[in-house]
């Protein structure tokens, strides 16, 4: 099984350890993981702003980079949602459709494809609050969202429950958006920041030491918000915990 | 402590039966605190009571003709009024939680949503037939049926009916349709007085402000704001901000107006084709006063309110109040079918863009909306911006997808006032894919160049850079530190709006890209790539 | 072309693609227990209404005090005599001075605690809103299980005006503070009493 690793631009630039953890974690399961060197972005910043034509060349590059693989795995629900649901600015050839269909977010790849039962190397004796990225939650169905009267499930919490010593705490508004919203964070900065302040305060009140998420973009925003208002929270990507980082 | 010990002035007006419980909420016969209607599950108020600390009510978006609404600017002013913002957020979140409790109490909830959505899809795709059926039945019931092509048409028709009867005053219940038609503004120039009888809507009318929410029109106001409005317009005690005192004062003030009104008007929640019935759902009973006291009654109906049969009410009514308020039903569900003795009854079927919207492939399902407001209550952006920040009749998520159908330029900014988190779609009782339509609107607006040139220019530059790996790596790699370039680049913004409310991310020693090159590639290949990267 | 013709033509022109059949509505299992009287009362109370219990053989015991202190009583039922004859009311607004109105409900709904009136029961519709207090007689045998059952009744197709009341008039438009008697009645008390 050949895996193409997609490292989103935020992760590449600001959270390289998340890319490294994702790579190492996949390799722990004996997978053949390659990082196509010419990769840049999934096209989300443009399409989310409505500028699909402007995203076409970036989308074509993504497909070109990842067509040769059996699976594409990325540590970001948001980027995977873009690829799966919104990579439509270029003609939908068989190749394009195939790439879109085999692109997985790390958590769902581990949970649904590899069906991982244990992470014997992982231990994280801390209180953590889980942050659901909205695209991961409601776009690619990581978990049952709080609005729906359907049986509860959560893929990320399933995985985290296999980590020794971890304690999950739940904020009062468990899946309220943190306000990042891609370009929303800069085009509507006041509301975005306020949502972030409320989010990190909610996690802190619930007793979390760490906020864990499968998306670095939300955490980059929340980290900036927590630092600004002095909420003593630490942030860590789920890939790092599952890969056995010791905090 | 009894209610009387607590506040002096309220005794002057308050009815003896309206004793104030300790936390101001009403208690049921069994002593339990009640939270039906739009009431909160616990006291949520704007504190502190100290007058000096009260903040002025933030006002809505600045309307500048046809220029695009600056929702972000209005939202920023709302956020700068923390007492208002906090009370607003907590109050609406409380409604969302009440909605969850009610929805989770019904095992078939998701099935009901499916059914409601399918009934609406069916009705809308056969709307001509159902409208004709409705019209025929209403006429057979002795009702005068009118058709209005747009808002102006509606206003002229209603004005004409009132003039024909020599009416000088009109009492009405809350109707988003009449807001959409600008009915009150139109009537202001006719010499006929219009009196809103829903408390929240009356507050907004007296304050000369639009409703900020489809169900709770004055939810953005604190009791201090209401006290100030009533003191100015009804002569109440400006120092008395007790909700019971204010509500009772309004009742006393409005009752004579209701009794003497020449005509009454209601909106419409559901219009039943098979019987020609208009159904309204209210908590105050004011639609029933409007329909049952004056001799002349008028019902304004948006044509998308049609449903085929009475039995379908059994689906919609179970969803509406639970989604809106977390209550099993509103206090009053009223079915106006035929005239009462000695009355005259008119129904006005209003199009105002609906039949055009029906032809918009990606957006026609927004016509399914039953105006429950659940999408507003759950929307994290709405709760922190206030409904008036949208500068449109419909605010919040449903507003983002309806408003541009009325005016693409003026409301071109609204679909961007969202994080597209999708919670709105999940609470929608008729399963409108609201957040997907927000996404689709952005595309339409960009294609039609209704987004700022600056924004589109930035996206073009970003797209060019992101499709050329060498240029991309050169831009973020040449400085050997992504931080210098990427924050601004990553957020695509020439101004540092990121740093205004947030700290910048730390810059790591090296990017993943460079780590991979150093640690995972053989040096020869890496050198070659490096060369390619600089080109 | 008239607005009517224009609107209908646009609708026909813009008909959404695809097949959208009208779904059948399944019979949903009732959400209430078997004792509909208890279930009805519980829900009515949660909606701010009251259940009047009989005492010493007096069905009206719970509202005797209210009736005694009322100046004007408008009764639409044979069980109680009022002092305002609803058959002699010239205009709906003439009922503005009524302190207590007494009417019989067509039926009750256990799922919600609602009662139904039509113009038949109310005699003058406005009495149910202009009175300060409303007393409702309900035959315990006339309690339906849920809203779905209610809408299978023919009353909605035959009555000029049909209305479900669920507790009294209520508002919470000011800071979410619940207040009864916003514009309509300040209280609604249901007395369970078989039809005579």
TrEMBL record, chain A:
Residues 4-83, 128-221 form the Cysteine-rich domain. InterPro entries: Cys_rich_dom (IPR004017). It comes from the Bacteria. This is (Fe-S)-binding protein.
UniProtKB/TrEMBL annotation, chain B:
Residues 508-517 have a biased composition (Polar residues). PROSITE patterns: 4FE4S_FER_1, 4FE4S_FER_2. Residues 1-65, 500-535 are annotated as: Disordered. Gene3D superfamilies: Alpha-helical ferredoxin, NagB/RpiA/CoA transferase-like. The keyword Metal-binding applies. Keywords: 4Fe-4S, Electron transport, Iron, Iron-sulfur, Metal-binding, Repeat, Transport. This is Lactate utilization protein B.
Automatic annotation (TrEMBL), chain C:
InterPro entries: FTHF_cligase-like_sf, LUD_dom, NagB/RpiA_transferase-like. PANTHER family: LACTATE UTILIZATION PROTEIN C. This is Lactate utilization protein C. It comes from Methylobacterium marchantiae. Residues 1-22 are annotated as: Disordered. Residues 88-193 form the LUD domain.
